[in-house]
User: Which sequence fits this backbone?
């Protein structure tokens, strides 16, 4: 198993939710509608890790303004497809995998060398769900969210609000220029009611206004007022 040391900027956020929502192009991060359950091994494909519910509709994931990343790069990612579609229009390549027993793999695709790699926290006991991109033609997958399941039930993103970007600058697409860093996002997690399955809708839980963050104990995300 090849592992890649992920770069994390989650503790260094300096933007605010108000900065993000104040833009005319802002579209809030959306929920996820689950489609059919997919098993590539059963379909004659080779990658046993790409098992789960295909995402049925285009969806939006916003990144936050943060230290060491140009605002323009964040805007380009969030505005991808604007105004005609959400910034993840290739929803049918993404799948949600859940295992309350934990230990799920967290995939990283090395575009440059064509190697399937794994994050340092891949397979940890808390990895009870993942949201990943799957390429049946390329035979690889890239996890963009991973986390544990708590209460409600609530699919909590770990690290808090951490979007796991693709390796390489512009290799996945021209707005993915974060080279494998874990980026602060607007999405803290997803909630749902009833039994999870085809047709289920996962409601997003988004980063709150800065004044309420301390009350929620989200010390990993320090959101400060920033002049732009």
Assistant:
């Amino acid at each position: 198993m090849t592992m890649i040391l992920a770069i994390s900027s989650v503790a260094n956020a300096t933007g605010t939710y108000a900065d993000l929502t104040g833009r005319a192009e802002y579209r809030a991060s959306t929920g996820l509608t689950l489609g059919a359950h997919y098993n590539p091994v059963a379909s004659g494909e080779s990658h046993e890790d790409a098992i789960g519910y295909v995402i049925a509709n285009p969806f939006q994931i916003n990144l936050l303004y943060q230290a060491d990343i140009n605002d323009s790069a964040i805007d380009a990612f969030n505005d991808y497809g604007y105004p005609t579609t959400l910034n993840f229009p290739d929803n049918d390549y993404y799948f949600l995998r859940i295992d309350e027993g934990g230990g799920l793999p967290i995939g990283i695709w090395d575009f440059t060398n064509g190697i399937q790699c794994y994050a340092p926290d891949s397979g940890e006991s808390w990895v009870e769900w993942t949201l990943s991109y799957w390429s049946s033609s390329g035979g690889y997958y890239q996890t963009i969210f991973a986390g544990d399941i708590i209460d409600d039930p609530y699919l909590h993103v770990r690290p808090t609000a951490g979007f796991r970007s693709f390796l390489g600058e512009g290799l996945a697409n021209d707005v993915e220029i974060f080279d494998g860093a874990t980026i602060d996002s607007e999405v803290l997690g997803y909630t749902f009611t009833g039994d999870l399955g085809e047709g289920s809708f996962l409601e997003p839980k988004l980063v709150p206004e800065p004044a309420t963050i301390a009350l929620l104990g989200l010390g990993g995300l320090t959101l400060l007022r920033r002049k732009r």
Summary: Helices lie at 17-21, 71-78, 210-216. The CA atoms of residues 94 and 133 lie 4 Å apart. The first helix runs from residue 17 to 21.
